[in-house]
Each structure stands twice: as C-alpha cells, then as structure tokens.
Amino acid sequence: MNINTGNRLLTSLVLAVSLGCAAVNASAGNDDFLDDVEALPASKVFTNGEMPKFPVLGKRRVVVVVGQWSNSSNVDPAVIRQQLFSDDPRSLRSFVLASSDNKLSLEEFKLLTPSFGEKPSGNCSNGDIYPRAERAIEAAGLNQHEYDQLIVAVACQGGANAGMPGNRMILFGQGGSSHVFLHEYGHNLGVDHPRTYANCRRSGDTVYAPEGCAVSSIADSGDPVGGGTGLYPAVNRAFAGWLDERQSSEITKTGIYKLSALGEPGPQAYAIRRPGKNEYIMLEHRQANPPYDFPAEDNRSIGVWVRYSTVGSNVSSILLNANPEDTTFAKPTLLPSRKLIDEAAGVKLHVCITSGKGRFFAVSVNNERLPDCTATPAVPLVTSPEQGQDVLIAPVFAGSGIPGASIEIGISDKTASTIVDAQGHWRFVDNEIRPEGEYSFRVRQALGPLLVSEYSAVRKYRVKHSELDRVLITAPLPGAKVGRYPLVTGRAVPGAEVSVAKSIEARTLAQTEADERGNWSVKITEPLPDGSYSISARQKRGGQTSAWGNNVQFNVSSTLETPVIQIPEANREVGVDNVILSGTTSPGAIVVIVPQGRPSDFLATTTANAVGVWEVKITGLSLGTHTVSARSFDNGSHSGWSLNRRFTVVQKTVQGVGLKNGTQAAK
Ligand SMILES: [Zn+2]
Q1: CA-based nearest residue to 35, from 169, 166, 147, 133
Q2: Domain 472-556 has CATH 2.60.40.1220
Q3: What residues flank ion ligand 1 with Cβ within 5 A?
Q4: What is the pTM of this model?
C-alpha cells in the first residue's frame, strides 16, 4: 500500500485498514481495495455563511488510462470500461446518474491503453504512475482543458487512492466489481471515510448522542465510501451540488419538517448545525429503490438516517446507530416514535408516526420544547395570485407551509397538488388554459392521511389572455467575463418554461421555469468554449412559444476569475459585530475565505450572484489584526488565491459598509 500524503497518513491508514475489516457485515464492507486519500487537513475553524459545497454538475469528460506493462500481467481495459461506463446499474456512470438525479453524467471521452514499458521493481507510486499517464495523454494530443476527470489503472501491488476533493484517481490493480470506483469517486467528490456512533445511551424510546457514544470504524452501509451498497447519501449529494435549495435546507428554528425519500420530489435533506461547530446533524430518508438501496421492510427504508457530518473543505460523517442494541449495524435509522436528544447542541428530534409516504418529524433547537407530532397543521399561506389579481394566460399558485407537507389546491372544478419545498415555499404552475374570466381557489396542507389542515379562505383571480412577449436576460451582462458554466438570470411570464440557447444555432443549453413573480435563474452545466459567446432565450406558456429574445454576448474564460476582496478596505478597523466581507469574482462561483496561509480553514463560504458580486458576514473573529485570502470554485475547477487583505477587528461598533442595494442582482 502506497501512502504519499503528509498530515493524514496515520488516520487514513487506520481507516483504510478498518474498512477492509468491515467485510464481516453482509450488507457493507465490500471494499476489496485498501486505499488512501490525498486530502487537505480537516478544517478547524468555524465556517460562516452557507454550508460549504463544491458542485460537480453536467456532463464530465472522463479520460481513462489503462497502462500496459511489457513484461508483466496487465489490467484488462474491457473490464475497466464495463465497470465505469456500461449500462449495468452499478457501473460508476449509472450509479452517479442515479445518485445525482441525472445532474452529473460521467462520459467516456478517451480510453487509452499506452505501453508503460517494463514494470519497475517494488510497489508502484503516484509519483511514478501519474507522469506516465500524463505523457500518454499528451501523446494522444489532448490538453488538460479538454477533459474533466482522470482515471488511471495499472497492474501493481493492489490498492487505490483519490484526491479528496479532486478530479483524479489511481488503481494499482483491477477490482472484482465496480465498487472501488464508487468508493474512490466519492473521495473525488470530497467525502472522507465515514464512521459510526455505536453504543449510544438509550432510555425507552430516546437515544442520546453523540456524548457517551463510541466512535466505531464500522462504516456506513448507505455510502460506498463507507463500504456500503446504498447510493451516495444526502450529505454527499448536497456537497456535490446535486440538491438545490428547494431540496435541501438548514433547520434553524424549532418546528415540524417532512422529508421525502432521497431521489423523490420534495425536501431530501435537512441539516441542523451544532452551535459553534462545522458539524451538521444531517437527516435523510430512503425508500426501496430497486435495483439500489434496501428492501421495503428493511430498517434502512423505514426510519430517518442521522449522520453527524463535519463539512468544510471536505465531508467527514459519523452515522448514528440509532438502535444501539443492534450490533449488526444494519438497522441504523431512527424509527417513527423514536427520539434523539443531543444535549450538547440543545437539539431534540422526534420522528412522528405516519402511514403516508415520506417521514415527518419534530425538531427543537436552543433547548426549546419539542412540538407535538399529532397537532393539526396550520392553514398554509397563499401569496400568489393576490386577491382579485389579473393573471396572464394561467395562474401560478404559490405560498408557504410546513417544509415537505403536501399542498392540495382546489381550483374551480379540479384539485391539484404539490409539495412545500425545503425552504417552506410552495408553487404550482397551472398549465390548464381556461377562458378569460374570474376564478377562485383555496388550499390546505397535509403531513399524512390523518393530519390535514383546514382550507384557506377562498381567493379570486381573473385570467387574461395575451401574446407571449420575448424573454429578458438580466445576467450575464453584455460583455461580461464569465467562467465556463455561467449563471443566467432573467424575466419571463410567471410559470413559463424558459429555454436558454446558443444564438443562431438555437441549440438548447439549459431550461428552467419562471417563478410566480416571473424571475428565473439557471446555471449552464455544459462547458462553454473559451472566447466570445452569445446566448438568447425564449419562453413557452399555455401552448404558445415566444420569439427568441435579444442576443447577449459575453466572454468565456476556462480560468476562473481570482476573487477581489473590496470590503473591508485594507487596514480598516471593523466592529466585531459587523465583519462583512464582499467583493467580486466569476458570476455564480462559490467563494471561500481563509486565514492567510491556512487554505483548508474556511472562515466563510458564499456564492457570487449572477453579476459576480459576493458578500458574507463573519462572526466569531477575535479582536486584533487578521489577514485573509479568498479563492473561487466552480464545477470542479478553482481560481488562484486573491491578494491578502489585512484588517483589524475592534470592539466598537463601526457603521456597516455592506454593498448598496442597487449593486445587488438576483442570484
Ligand atoms: Zn477510501
């Protein structure tokens, strides 16, 4: 086994060996490769702003190099291709498509089988094999901007390793199944080997964690990085940008919340931050999903999975074994009627009993009282259409409710339904075209068959028909410099289906739906070529299709813009309660702020808006002088580091110097 990293050597060695030993568990532990990961040291600094994520989206071009020795046995390229790209549900490509809900597609771009000459004596190393692979790629006429992911396989001592996060992995042998690829690709997404909280204290229906629990190296049957068979868990998906803000959110308030099953419409992940830490209690629910995951009667298809996940420059999770008396580790979920109490975090969780789909639960934070699982839900709020409003073509119904609850909308003679998103908003686009005139509707929400709210008051609106106008693109701005995956925003008719296309060719690059106010936003996930590029958009609504709108020309660069820190100005004094950093970078990029010289200690992460402006508030900085730097990330690539910015945090309150509203554009 070859280990060539610094700080993590010992931990990785211990974890990798324990993974190999976890094979006693029938449902987990098929890691036939011991491995190591090339990781940044875990963050020790409290990260402000959003939960960090490093999205990997769209079609990714994969180069595979299967090195061939002239004097020794070799890895079979046909087997590697089968394990990576075949239609078998457990090929890496199929598995990633299923886990990402088709948001990430790993495409075979080139599979090379170069001669590596004579096999060197002793073990193979990254330092020897990667350069051989890179020479083969160069000889094939490819440069590094023409592919996104590198996979190298060569017959050596066995074992594998991968960047974490990163876009390359190496196998020193051939696996008996695709599992090694599912495991190593999890590392590439930024996921470390998970562990398990075992032997937690239990009293009646309540389990107490994490204080008093033992950290077991028995891994996670819901994550191939933990030796498991299940599809990548919710925290991995959130980190990889596969769950958007309607599908995943942070719980900061005591209340009732509902999870849909992973991969189903509605909220799929909730995160409860443990105070003062980069650690989140991550909640997900799975249901039988053949050929993936677990049978319907299995514990893992019934309850709520609870992971304690430290999220910074990578993800490190500890799965709660919520049934401490079970020593098979195959029944980890918190079942309906059970409670979890995390005394140190002041968090309580109660999984409610329901006979319907999904799982709802009560959460309390700040040591507050748990809400009642059996209380009748309140009437949902309605924000659109407003009472008496004129709506163009057909209405977009919208409002707020209990995250994950089902919304039933009674519209004149029919009933429609939708699900409240993870942020507590709901929306239903009515595509039925009715004659012009006045209509009425009312709504109610349900957590399960027996927990249904009263109806809202009846509201009236008036339908007016009209020709569809052209779509307006508000970002990128004409002439803007953007990365290869620009965020595009604009205005359209509420509920319209908006297509963004390359000008002249009218080839569709991205599609989205305008919200109830007519705003829309979509990220292009196919890599645009460097240089001048021009897009246009059009909309469809009620059987009509608009003309294409104006062409917007901008400049694409495969090199992300190094962020500029504009605020605070150099050497300024900043009040401790008002430390706001802001600046610019490539539109839509993730911005990470770190202390000078400590690249994996994230002080804050945030996302630049569609015109490249970002802003984040930092709490918890000590009084005195700080020097920070920033870097941008976008869909697997990153910028250089910004210039250092030095400022002094002082006790007094200094007038806020955030961005003026006028410079803020919609994200
Ligand atoms: Zn590993």
Answers
A1: 169
A2: yes
A3: 35
A4: 0.89
